[in-house]
Ni2+-binding GTPase
Amino acid sequence: MENADLYLSELDRRVSDEIAELQAQIDQLKAENARLRTALLKASTSPSKMSSKLRDALYE
C-alpha cells in the first residue's frame, strides 16, 4: 500500500508540474496576444504610407 501512495504522490507532483508549466504558457500567450493587439491597433490607425502618385492612380 505504501508503494501505491508513493506512486500517487509522484503522479500528483508531475501533474502539478505540468499544470504549472501550462499556466506559465497561458500567461506568456496572454502577454503576446496583448502586444499583438496593440501593434495591430497602431498599424490599422496609422495613416497610409502609400505615395500620393500611387494613391491618385488607384483612385482614377
